[in-house]
Amino acid sequence: MPQIRLEYTAHPSISPQEMERCVNSFFPRLHRLLVDTVSGIDIHACKSGMIPLSLYCLGEGGTEDTFLHLTIGLLSGRSLEEKKELSLAALKLLEEHAQWAKTSGTLQVTVAIEDMTRETYSKIAIK
Predict the structure, then answer these.
(1) Which of 45, 37, 17 shows the shortest CA–CA distance to 93?
(2) Which of 42, 44, 76, 89 could make an SS bond with 115 (beta carbons 3.0 to 4.6 A apart)?
(3) Of 68, 91, 94, whose CA–CA distance to 10 is shortest?
(4) Are strands 3-9 and 47-53 parallel, antiparallel or unpaired?
(5) Which class is 3-120 in CATH?
(6) Is the pLDDT score of 69 beyond 90?
(7) What is the DSSP string of the chain?
């Protein structure tokens, strides 16, 4: 915990090198932001990944518009204020790192903070 997913439109003009820069630069900064913003976060427990969407539709189906959607799953029990602060800070950080996903159309950037129910969340570390 936290579980972090960055969905992005896998537009042909977006290079793999740009996506790799996102992983190497954005996610470590996001993990640090989580530690600094949300109580009880262990940076070593942050798990992030990118999910390409090769089939997608925005609005009426234009082909040049793209999007980034960041979902951050946190164990339940955080205050609404804490989650709102995290959402806005993560959105700002993602905006700073979003240029790689921009095409000639509009880039929509969104963030959602989701609660993961503590009572049903299970974890094991295998060494």
Answers:
(1) 37
(2) 76
(3) 68
(4) parallel
(5) alpha beta
(6) yes
(7) --EEEEEEE--TTS-HHHHHHHHHHHHHHHHHHHHHHSTT--GGG-EEEEEEESS---TTT-SS-EEEEEEEEEES---HHHHHHHHHHHHHHHHHT-GGG--SS-EEEEEEEEEE-GGG-------
